[in-house]
């Protein structure tokens, strides 16, 4: 209640402020809007993820516009479909860059699309924020025009390994489709487990098949304490069902972007997914952005990609506010000024923009992590939230 | 250069790759009455061949492209060997499977293809020297190659060989009776066609500097069928025109879809793809001869013997 | 040895998922003489049809399967009448290409209406039954029974009913059938209704194991084509044999080669069969 009343007064203050500046605000609103774009997969293999990502970015921008925009300008969002295909992605990106003249593109998902689109972005000085996990992406010569919120696979998988050891799983079987991070994932888990006295078996599967019975048999012959299901939602659904049918009683862990609320609803049967562990990049305990994402997209357990696109939109908007300039280069140069380095902690662009306008230094703590970036554009560190499915609900175990 | 002009140059170049694919399909569909539902697979063969030759072996780009032509032709030969004897429906299914298999190999044989990461940093001809004018020069060069291929195919079409191919298309039995060696004709035509598709792939790779398995999905094959059907099956200039119509259609629907209010982005995307399918059926139905109908050149009159 | 036997069992189970769409595909081919490449979309439609009946209306599984059959069948029939039939004068390949376009249209109508979210049936999943070290899924045994039952019904229909006989006659020789006073259009429409309907039933069964989304049918489509070609395009028993064979081959490939190449197995099987036995294992007669 107090929270709400505080916001009410803020809003009241804002209304008053806008009223006082009404004339110039209208004039400015008629000026050019600031243009941003989402380039997410709306069709093809990434189809289950892209739509809600576009929705999250749109919600952030709507909030900012309601609060008066950035630099007195309205923000306009253009959403294009990359079709989970670099050829289509590049065509869409050219249109966004050359015709719409967007300052930033957020939300590219498939590593192949990001790799294809990135050169267009750095050549045209457009900022690119991505959720792609392949290690090679931040090694591209992007001159700073690329940041990613997805922890690279080495960081991510070594944490999985440590967590598995901590819950007593020493023999782990990894089942993973062929993706850009498959090799890293297998190598990293192997190394982490062996360091803790464990062992790994692994199998790379074809992600478009209707059943994985023989694959599951092969996994069970390894006699694992735990199975690491490292695919995406459509294939992980099949895998979990076949593990249940095979009567596997050990532990199962998967990535939260794959084993999400939608997967639980799809399976619809508590026993099949009971006890399954998930993990996702996260800010430290007590951070509030995650709860804001829940509200903004109307989901109880928003998946990590949705959280990351929420962060992209907020980071870009605050970087524009801090630079007092909406070009891609301005965003590149000032994004680290608002994402890290101390200052007032903010979890959304509306508050951030206001604080920046008041001359304060801000430090954004996002929904997917603290969002601090190194020179290559990788996140410096993040915590992980470990959750477990209990009675068809994802329940938080710990953030560490 | 920036803005609209840049975008249009890019579209002209991309349209050129589509045009080559359309010329490839037109040669066998229009020319010999066969279909190739695995166009994306041959496109991929060429793109990977040229990229790997130039990056791994360091051969000049022109040699990489020549290599792509050879690999494409060999691929086409292998695919048709076991199927041409049979009807077109078998060939359709085989080529469909071929394209998926190529994509699977590109995804899994990491030692060769770098897997789903794809190959980035493929060199472009004179890229450093041309600087900001690279795209313009490349678009012009692509158009020139399209023109050259068009010219050669036109020559082929007007030659006795072209007439023989058409005879195969119109009636296999008659052609056989007339002593045309159908099987050889079909395999040759398919191999040439596959080489042209591979050429499109090679040019695509050197332009975009990146190839990955995700690029070669079946949808691109449908685009090309639409291009050839819209332009007029059997007419090389129709195929080129059709390719540009398709790319214009693909791009303009972005702007059109955005104009429909109240729809989510995923609904816009669904409408755009739906329109492609709808256009193909409508073209086949209402304009089966395409915009530029085929002109069958009259056979040379037999010289009167005295 | 156990792993070999288990893979064989798994292969049969995987094959049963392919069998119904393969029968549907081949039955349409037998009568209409063109490959209807829209089978993936028909399967997806069936998955959604069954899902709506089950999750929205609370229908039990058999009734939902019927809904899947009817929805896919009606859409298939309508599409045949409106979109494909008028193209027939242009030749079988033109119709086949239009069917691919139809596939894209249906997939995206579903995407427009339902989004890309994965949906699931409100039906329980059962654990496998064990025989010593081997295991079998009860649901998948039901699938096999169902495929066999459908095949039996189809045979009876083709062998004993008037319209069934007419269908066979049309498949064998449309011109002769017309002379005998059979109305080929009715027979063709029926073939598409039944064929697309079977794809729909197969799609729902597939959806039970996987999920209902715009790409559900896409998961099996290449294996279905392979099954039909391996068995002999146009032969219904051939389609069943082909489906089981492809299912087995895919599972053995998982053990022998690499699980990632499962999707290529169908292609290799097609090439082998076309080279060694060009008319398929069981020839091309409808039954």
Please give the structural blueprint.
The complex is a heterotrimer of chains A (400), B (306) and C (287).
Chain A: H1 2-20, H2 22-29, E1 34-40, H3 50-66, E2 75-81, H4 86-100, E3 104-108, H5 111-123, E4 127-130, E5 146-148, H6 153-166, E6 171-177, H7 182-195, E7 199-205, H8 213-221, E8 226-229, H9 233-245, E9 251-255, H10 261-267, H11 270-273, E10 277-282, H12 289-297, H13 304-323, H14 328-339, E11 344-346, H15 349-357, E12 362-364, E13 383-390, E14 393-399
Parallel strand pairs in A: 1-2, 1-3, 3-4, 4-5, 6-7, 6-8, 8-9, 9-10, 11-12
Antiparallel strand pairs in A: 10-13, 13-14
Helix pairs in contact in A: 3-13, 4-5, 6-7, 13-14, 13-15
Chain B: H1 3-32, H2 39-56, H3 61-81, H4 88-108, H5 110-113, E1 119-120, H6 127-130, H7 134-158, H8 160-170, H9 172-177, H10 182-208, E2 210-211, H11 219-231, H12 236-259, H13 265-286
Antiparallel strand pairs in B: 1-2
Helix pairs in contact in B: 1-7, 1-10, 1-11, 1-12, 2-3, 2-4, 2-10, 3-10, 7-8, 8-10, 11-12, 11-13, 12-13
Chain C: H1 2-32, H2 39-56, H3 61-84, H4 92-114, E1 129-131, E2 134-136, H5 138-160, H6 162-172, H7 174-179, H8 184-209, H9 221-231, H10 236-256, H11 262-276
Antiparallel strand pairs in C: 1-2
Helix pairs in contact in C: 1-5, 1-8, 1-9, 1-10, 2-3, 2-4, 2-8, 3-8, 5-6, 6-8, 9-10, 9-11, 10-11
Please provide a written account of the structure.
The complex is a heterotrimer of chains A (400), B (306) and C (287). With 400 residues, chain A is α/β, with parallel strands linked by helices. Chain A has helices at 2-20, 22-29, 50-66, 86-100, 111-123, 153-166, 182-195, 213-221, 233-245, 261-267, 270-273, 289-297, 304-323, 328-339, 349-357; strands at residues 34-40, 75-81, 104-108, 127-130, 146-148, 171-177, 199-205, 226-229, 251-255, 277-282, 344-346, 362-364, 383-390, 393-399. Helices cover 46% and strands 19% of the residues of chain A. Chain B has a domain at 7-217. Chain B contains 13 helices and two strands. Chain C has 287 residues and is mainly alpha-helical. Chain C has a single domain (2-118, 137-276), classed as Orthogonal Bundle (ABC transporter involved in vitamin B12 uptake, BtuC), CATH 1.10.3470. In chain C, strands 1-2 form a two-stranded antiparallel sheet. In chain C, strand 1 (129-131) and strand 2 (134-136) form a beta hairpin. The mean pLDDT of chain C is 89. The interface between B and C is large, with 44 and 45 residues.
